[in-house]
Design goal:
Blueprint: H1 6-10, H2 18-32, H3 43-57, H4 60-69, H5 90-109, E1 126-132, H6 134-139, E2 141-152, E3 168-169, E4 178-183, E5 186-191, E6 200-201, E7 214-225, E8 234-237, E9 253-259, E10 265-268, E11 271-279, H7 280-285, E12 287-292, E13 298-303, E14 312-315, E15 331-338, H8 345-356, H9 363-380
Protein name: Chaperone protein DnaJ
Subunit structure: Homodimer.
GO biological process, one term: protein refolding
């Protein structure tokens, strides 16, 4: 039986545009899909006929041949694409079905552009680890860094071709970036070995970038680090990553902050903790001490009489600034009552005398040893 005209199969006028062909195919494929026409024994043949027609008319070269010669253009193997089947075999059914999937989902998945030409490749994102001091994290800073990256080649302006010429369509895959091989009923699709999936080749590569459209170079950047950052803070610089391939958009640069450990202050969120040694006499009798603050200033703190090690006192708003505004955290002074060492004979004598007079001045010791005595008594029982 003679084949029907491909335009009639899709319900189109001869010479229809590519978008009309695609739209008609989607409609027909949905209407005649065998899964939706289980009661129609002819549905599968009609569905294959629609796919065969679309396989030819969607391709500019095949469509031009068909418009001129009709079905005769594909008799005896004419019109076959590298790595694909003829215009009526099993390869065309799988190919057309794959192509409509690409048409429907290609934009979402980052696939091919209309006409089979692949999009320029976006550059890779880069990571830069930056170590700063706690003081720098408190005040914020502007810092110059050098990032090894791929930048757009200035000689070819990112095209990859000598003299800024345009790449040409890959003859192996016809610009698809992929080749298909028939294995029985199945069609296997692989990345084109000639163009490495780009869909284009450069006949006269740039002498500087060798056809890549970009070159490796250290890039100097000035980075603003806001006040209040902490270890793990990530700063994104859009478009400052690697340059894209063949004029594609650049990736992003991510700066990961690490705040170095401080000799005096320990940070927890926006609060700071400072452990301050206090003499035994000051802790017992009260007194004033001077403590540093992260902004480089000083604060006087009164030690209450009878203070013990571990006691904390708060200095409000003397901590770290909030990263996105909202004031400052607090600073906590933690006392460490210090036992004197290297005592003179006279000091030892005074301490022994003090010890003899201090039987009722150590409530914590009394409470502890009372608990110990009760424990031992219970063990004996």
């Amino acid at each position: 039986m003679a084949k029907r005209d491909y335009y009639d199969v899709l319900g189109l006028q001869k010479g229809a545009a590519a978008d009309e062909i695609k739209k008609a195919y989607r409609s027909k494929a949905k209407e005649l899909h065998p899964d939706r026409n289980s009661d129609n024994p002819k549905a599968e043949d009609q569905f294959k006929e629609v796919n065969e027609a679309y396989e030819v008319l969607k391709d500019a070269e095949k469509k031009a041949a068909y418009d001129r010669f009709g079905h005769a253009a594909f008799e005896g193997g004419m019109g076959q694409r590298p790595g694909g089947g003829g215009a009526g075999g099993q390869g065309d059914f799988a190919s057309a079905f794959s192509d409509v999937f690409d048409d429907l989902f290609g934009d979402f998945m980052g696939g091919r552009q209309p006409g089979g030409r692949q999009r320029a490749t976006r550059g890779a994102d880069l990571r830069y680890n930056m170590r700063i001091t706690l003081e720098e994290a408190y005040s914020g800073l502007q810092k110059s860094i050098k990032v090894p990256t791929a930048v757009t080649c200035t000689k070819c302006e990112g095209s990859g071709a000598e003299g800024g010429g345009e790449p040409t369509t890959c003859p192996t895959c016809a610009g698809m970036g992929k080749v298909r091989a028939q294995q029985g009923f199945f069609t296997v699709e692989r990345t084109c070995p000639t163009c490495s999936g780009m869909g284009q080749i450069i006949k006269n590569p740039c002498s500087v970038c060798h056809g890549q459209g970009r070159v490796e170079r250290d890039r100097a950047l000035s980075v603003n680090i806001p006040a209040g950052v902490e270890t793990g803070t990530r700063i994104r610089l859009g478009g400052e990553g690697e340059a894209g391939m063949r004029g594609g958009p650049s990736g992003d640069l991510y700066i990961f902050i690490e705040v170095a450990k401080h000799d005096i202050f320990e940070r927890e969120g926006n609060n700071l903790f400072c452990r301050v040694p206090v003499s035994m006499a000051t802790a017992a009798l009260s007194g004033d001490i001077e403590v540093p603050t992260i902004d480089g200033g000083r604060s006087r703190v009164k030690i209450p009489e009878g203070s013990q090690s571990g006691r904390q006192m708060r200095l409000r708003s003397k901590g770290m600034p909030a990263l996105r505004g909202g004031g400052h955290g607090d600073m906590f002074i933690e006392m460490a009552v210090e036992t004197p060492v290297n005592l003179t004979g006279r000091q030892k004598e005074l301490l022994r005398e003090f010890e003899d007079l201090s039987e009722e001045n150590n409530p914590e010791s009394e409470g502890f040893f009372r608990s110990v005595k009760n424990f031992w008594d219970s063990m004996k029982g």
